[in-house]
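Notes from hallway chat w/ T.B., transcribed later so I don't forget. T.B. wanted the structure written out for a chain they're using in a teaching module, and asked if we could keep both sequence and structure tokens in one place. Agreed to drop them here.
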Amino acid sequence: MTFFQAIIIAIVEGLTEFLPVSSTGHMIIVSSLLGISKDEFTKLFEVVIQLGAILAVVVLYWKKFFVFDKNRMNFYLKLIVAVIPALILGYLFADKIDMLLESPMTVGITLFLGGIILLFVDKWFQNPTIDSDEKINIFKALRIGFYQCLAMIPGVSRSAASIIGGMQQKLTRNVAAEFSFFLAVPTMAAATGYKLLKGRELLMAHPENLKLLLVGNIVAFVVAMLAIKFFIDSLKKHGFKIWGYYRIVVGLIIIVALLMGYKLEI
């Protein structure tokens, strides 16, 4: 992986991690177009640059994480409870998840089907009653955490799954999106920490790769900050339908490319 390729992949990660469009599906397409070979480091890179995206959430919503008041411990407790399903299921089914990650057709189909769902989400979940994250109780947070686990299927999108889960629990679109961002912090921190732990020998053997990781995280951080602001504004004005059409198009591109014999490496 060159520095140019690292920057492009980091831009894709920053743009798509918090949008309901699946960062995995987009990195498959872009990596194939750039001719990036899927070795152990590139797989590590595509996970670890999520740290930059996490930092974007923490910076944009720093008051939520660092201004301590009577609601702060309750906020942390809800995030801890919501992330438990992903930690348990991720640990139990790690091998099966890796097998799914090796199937680009799975990504294309789930992108396509998820796009169809997004076309109707705004109609399904009308009349929300929860207009701030302070009103989310522990049980609703846990249910949203289980919805997030659907993203273990490549192409589903962690953001889409958790936002839909939040709307099903009567959260407004904006509150569901913001809680999805907050939940991303412990979820992605655990995933990247685990990946770094497993790949520590690889990085020690090739310390020059640390520069690529540093550049990738910086780029992902800057782009993710812009993407989050854009997404919130888009939700207020247009809802989810535009993202549904987008997912359908991307999913069809992957499916058609595979049926035509084009090889997409994951």
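Follow-up for T.B.: The mean pLDDT is 85. Might be a good example for the class.
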